[in-house]
Amino acid sequence: MVRHGGITASVVVDGIELPEYAVDYDSQKNVLLCWIPSEAGKKFGIRLHIDRADYHSRTTFYADGMWLDSTIVWKHPGSSLVSCNSARTSVNTASSLLFSRNVAAENVVAQPSSQKGCIRIAHWSVKRLERLTEHQEPSIFEPPRAPSRVEDVPHITLFGKEQICPPRPLASHNIEDIERLISFVFLYRPMEYLQAVGIAPSPPPPVEEVVETAEDEDGSDDEYVDDGDAVDEESAEYTDSVEGDKLSRRSKSSKKRKASSEDGTSESETDSDSEAVDTADEDDMAEMQRLKRKIKIQEMKVGRVSIMDRFAPNISNIELVFLHLLRPPTLVDSHLLFCAFPSSS
Q1: Which residue, of 18, 30, 131, 329, has the greatest Cβ tally within 10 A?
Q2: Which one, of 129, 133, 157, 7, lies nearest residue 68 by Cα?
Q3: For 273-320, how does the pLDDT look when each residue is reduced to its tens digit (9 = 90+)?
Q4: What are residue 45's DSSP bridge partners?
């Protein structure tokens, strides 16, 4: 809404006040002018609110230079709201107000050359005169049958289908205009036009989603992936397999001993089978220890390779030796030291 001197005015579509742009007040003409966005096919209404209705007033509404309605408000305590949502076509019928596309428009200009594309409110202070004694005919709006000439605005005001409405009360007194307190002028155009000429701000550009892609092999730094979990899983699987074999052999041995006792087999044969099982268990334990050492060495190799991959450009031979000294000596330390300090021969 726009406001001046305790009086506010607005144009409403779907119950929502339209935004105003480029608001300008001419103090010499006592006119407040602004631009509003219009949408073809939308019904609109006009509102004027008076903060303090301590004077007699008359408010007249116009669209495209056509008189729509006029309302008289006698002074009273408090505020007052005057609105125009339709144009009366008879005592008990009215037509709604519509923004419509102007099919006759040839071009679009920033400043209107006529009253087309313009909604106006004139607010007057009036003097209350003698009471009316004669019958007064109500004011009736007569919509134009056809445009008089080609207009240069993209949108104009048209009128919807007539609807039945209750008759309005007639004026009870004559009035005399004292002073036009304010006129509000709303120039309506499509939002695209207001943005194109810089009256309304342009919409923000669409936000592009940035998709991170992996660099090629030449310029990418591949992250080190610790395979320790995989190595541990492999060791656990092997250990479970060895333990399973041991239990299987022991089960077979116990069954064999039981069978031998039943069949009368000599204890020497049974003892030899038990010794064979124990020997197999010792071999399995030795194999498992060897595998654990191999896995430990592989983990250390992977760790050193990871360090070299990340810090190789900045690590000297002396620093490399220092890194190796921080870890417990292993079978691969002598090989790495030999690589860092090759023999002069």
Answers
A1: 18
A2: 157
A3: 555 555 666 777 777 778 777 777 776 666 655 555 555 555 455 455
A4: 12
